[in-house]
């Protein structure tokens, strides 16, 4: 049942990007509230990079992390700069290629991961519960990723634009 006060919901599939952003923002906002309630200074955007560095337990390049997470190099770079300022990671030039920067957890970063692991387990349990309640949304997101891999939004939009229309 749709809410007449919910502008985006009224557009159905046409509001796909807006709805995905909104859901992501809601989940991130609640995650931030959990960290704050536990007295932990932690930014949601740090999670993927911190988790990769912890799981691989070795220095990793920004590009490598971005490729694993399937997000932009810029996103990982911005998060890592913020993590470096917070003392969680150090960045240094690669011995093989001085232009390449490697990220590594500091002792403070390792301590943070140890402190957050039980909390992340609670996050994961809540995510599984939410996914089940929403009807296995992760499976549908997998299908969305696959559809975008087959043909991007750019391709779909460009195919629908008339060649007679002016481009500005």
TrEMBL record:
GO biological process: response to stress
Keyword line: DNA-binding, Transcription, Transcription regulation
GO MF terms held by the record: DNA binding; DNA-binding transcription factor activity
Source domain of life: Bacteria
Entry annotated with the keyword DNA repair: no
Residue ranges constituting the HTH marR-type domain according to the UniProt record: 13-146
Name of this protein: MarR family transcriptional regulator
């Amino acid at each position: 049942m749709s809410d007449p006060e919910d502008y985006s919901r009224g557009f159905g599939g046409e509001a796909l990007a807006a709805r995905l952003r909104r859901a992501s923002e809601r989940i991130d906002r609640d995650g931030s509230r959990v960290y704050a309630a536990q007295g932990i200074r932690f930014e949601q955007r740090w999670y993927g990079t911190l988790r990769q560095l912890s799981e691989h337990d070795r220095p990793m390049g920004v590009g490598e992390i971005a490729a694993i997470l399937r997000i932009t190099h810029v996103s990982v770079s911005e998060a890592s700069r913020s993590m470096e300022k917070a003392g969680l990671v150090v960045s240094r030039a690669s011995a093989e290629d001085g232009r390449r920067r490697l990220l590594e957890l500091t002792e403070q970063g390792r301590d943070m991961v140890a402190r957050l692991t039980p909390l992340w387990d609670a996050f994961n349990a809540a995510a599984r519960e939410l996914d089940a309640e929403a009807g296995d949304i992760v499976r549908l997101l997998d299908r969305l990723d696959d559809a975008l891999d087959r043909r991007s939004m750019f391709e779909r939009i460009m195919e629908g634009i008339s060649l007679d229309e002016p481009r500005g």
